[in-house]
Amino acid sequence: MAGRRRALIVANGEYDNAGLQRLGSPAADADALVEVLSDRAISDFEVRVVRNETAHVVQAEIEDLCAEGRPDDVLLMHFSCHGLKDDSGGLYFAARNTRPDRLRSTAVPAQFVQQCLRQSRSRSVVLLLDCCYGGAFGQGVAVRASGDANVLDSFRGGRGRAVITASNSIEYAFEGARLAEGQPAQPSVFTAALVEGLRTGEADRDEDGWIALGELYEYLFDRVRERNPKQTPSRDIEMQGELYLAKSRRRRIKPSPTPVDLAAAIAAENPFTRLGAVAELRRRLASDNLPVAMGAFEALKSMAATDIQHVAAAASDALGFAVVRVDVPSVRLSAPAGSRASASLRVSGPPVAREVRFEASHAWIGVAQTASGAELSVTAGEPGVRRGKVVVTGPTGDAVVEVEIEAVPVAEPVAEPESVVEAEPVAQPESVVEAEPVAEPVAEEVEPVASEPAPEAVVTPEPVVEAPAPPVTADPEPEPAAEESPPVAPVPKSEPAATTGESPADPVAGTAGVTAIAAAVFAVIGLGLNYRYDEYTLGQYRPGMPFYVSFVVAGALVGGVLVLAPRTRRRTGPAVLVGTGFAALFGLLRFIGEGITLGANSSDTELNAGYVFELIAHVAVVVAALLALAALRRSPGLAFGAGGVRGWQPWVAIALACVVATGWLTQLAELDHLDPSEAGRATAYFTLGPLVVVLLVITVAALRPPVVACAVLGAGTAGLAGVLGPTYSSLRDNTSLTLFGEVLAGVGLAGLVALTVVWALRLRNQPIERQP
Known about the structure:
Blueprint: E1 5-11, H1 25-37, E2 46-51, H2 55-67, E3 74-80, E4 83-85, E5 91-93, H3 103-106, E6 108-109, H4 110-119, E7 124-130, E8 161-165, H5 189-200, E9 210-212, H6 213-227, E10 234-238, E11 244-247, H7 260-266, H8 271-285, H9 290-306, H10 309-320, E12 325-326, E13 330-336, E14 340-348, E15 357-360, E16 365-369, E17 373-379, E18 384-394, E19 397-408, H11 412-451, H12 453-459, H13 461-466, H14 469-474, H15 478-488, H16 491-500, H17 502-505, H18 507-528, E20 530-532, E21 536-537, H19 538-541, H20 545-564, H21 572-601, H22 609-634, E22 639-640, H23 648-674, H24 676-702, E23 703-704, H25 706-721, H26 724-729, H27 740-762
Parallel strand pairs: 1-2, 1-3, 3-7, 7-8, 13-19
Antiparallel strand pairs: 4-5, 5-6, 8-10, 9-11, 12-14, 14-17, 15-18, 16-17, 18-19, 20-21, 22-23
Helix pairs in contact: 1-5, 2-4, 5-6, 7-8, 8-9, 8-10, 9-10, 18-20, 18-22, 20-21, 20-25, 21-22, 21-24, 21-25, 23-24, 23-27, 24-25, 25-27
């Protein structure tokens, strides 16, 4: 498609001479053609429109187009007007100033157009004539021109020239609608079919992605004859090679063959080898290379239909990522009768799932395909509701969008001006009269109210001055008593006896410990049960997650035991449980999100007992952490954010947390660039991890005393280290990844562990209870 693509549309429907019937379709023809020809995704023509001009203006435009054409240019001319002939059989195109008795001087001769075409240097010129050549056909149908004229005879000869007419020499080209008052004109039968074939791509008969001139004529012939059997389009094409007028989205994607090693894995006897093949096919399904993606789709469809249950289920899940998805299942609009309302449809999914076309069920639903979906233009009919649908079809399936538009009555606005005119003079005097007296009493009431507090304010200072005096004299006496209180209450000596009976006095901490231990038991049991379907455990369905769960289990067991131990139940145990709760928050959100996602895609998620046990376990750990935090708040000396961030340790923790978050987000960005489908499935891992680690260090920076913050940081970091398991498992099949982000996250977590150790050593490794 080298060179320019230029189009000239001549649309003459208005005539000064009363002998020429007015036409409504040329204006609509021009608008529809401009839209489709200028669309860069379809035809990409530079379009020039001449509307209702005189003959000499039309001739000048035709000559300019042909004279400026270069050899590689594609020129297209479309005439929508009356076609007339003189006494000698010469063909003329009617202009605004055309007189049927003075055709040579007031109309555009077909011979003139032919001469311009022959003298043009362009080797590709297409002439489309939507003109009529005969008498009227039926009542209420507007027919262009009169008499018999063989159009093709007027444009014979030349190389690289093509002429397509709306009808043959003895037929008429009919307009698309009656010329009734108040009704918008519709494109003619011929031009409507032309626009539809180009816009929808239906003219691409061989589905190779291009609409050739020959394919376009065959489509026009079939569609025009289908709508009006009394009209037969004709053609005269003399060109070397194919001329492609437009691009098409009706491309038939030929699946590329499966590589030999992958085909061997698909046919392997070992089911786990076939599961590995499913993972590779899923990756290929997200490829920008559509034949490769289509080959993977066909292979997965075969495995889903013929393989054993758990392999077929995995293949079906993979196919689910490539189904055609539209952002809305239905469109509901409203507009006045005869007018239009618009809406947008967006298609999502991998590239092969976005290779779709849109087909409307009714003519009143206009569909214009865009890069991301389609724009709908829906016309309201008579008062009431119109219902139709748009079918979205692609190589991986189809979807249906219900379309509904309600015609809004137009009679209501007529009554509004009358009621407004009558209401204005009545409302204005009433509001003015009422407003003035209302304002006056309000002002009068404010004055006495303001004057009454004045004496009260003068009286109150006297007792206020006298009241502080007694407390001032009493303050020195409590101070020495407060100083004597610490030695009087020997906490270390009484602590063993007090801690022995501390459980009944503080049941919150004890409940937190028991809940944490029970949660650890539930989590361990859940690892051995089926997570989804009847074959998959958590480790098989979500590789790497057992690694994370084991870290949470360890934290919950250690924290639960410390909370129940006499010497560590006040602060050490609760602090460890709070940190473990941050780590468990990752898994809780992950499991809840998975249940919601699977439930949204299917009424039966097929999640099994393993999922229930893990979900309950993580809920219990988070609840235990909240109870532990409540117990900590009862401990004397504990504070949140008092005096800002103290010491260098919290700042280092915040910096390292930013390193961890940056690493995981960087790895997600790299994975999304390589395999968007896999990135979509692993997004939860790479986003929840950064969120939880940032929340952890912010809490640590706000905690007092430092020993509590250190214990929370240590437990939380140990639990979040387990997240490295599922994140790495989602990357291991993508050998092209650099794993830079994963390494960065691991280094950041290792830094947090080292910081916890250094911080604890600086605190001299003393129990939290003995720290200030």
